[in-house]
Specification:
The protein is mainly β. The protein is 10% helix and 38% strand. The protein has one helix and eight strands, in the order βββββαβββ. The strands form two sheets. Strands 2-1-6-7 form a four-stranded mixed sheet, covered by helices on one side.
Amino acid sequence: MNYLFFAEADVETAEEAMLLPASNYLGCDPVSGGIKLMFAAVDGTETREVVTLSCANGNQKTVLDAFVAIMNTRPHSGGYIVVADADVAIPGGGDDVAKRTASYHKAFRGLVTGCAIA
């Protein structure tokens, strides 16, 4: 089974980063400026985990196609896949400390520019 990692910018508290089983994917909703990915809750409740990937309008279908390919990477061996890591904070660093660079899976070909978890 594949596990998908997502992180918002400056992860400092719970639910600003998530590692979700790909099998929990329920569907998506293309929205203005991105695409909302919905997953079954990891705690077994009826709530949904929602991850929004930001992209320019008109690129939602291409981003979704890439996401499906990412989910299906190594279907028989499983693994941990970084889908979107927008966390640029350096633990213990102040505002004047250099930040890390956000990284998004190469399958997005630079189309994804942000990640938000709700």
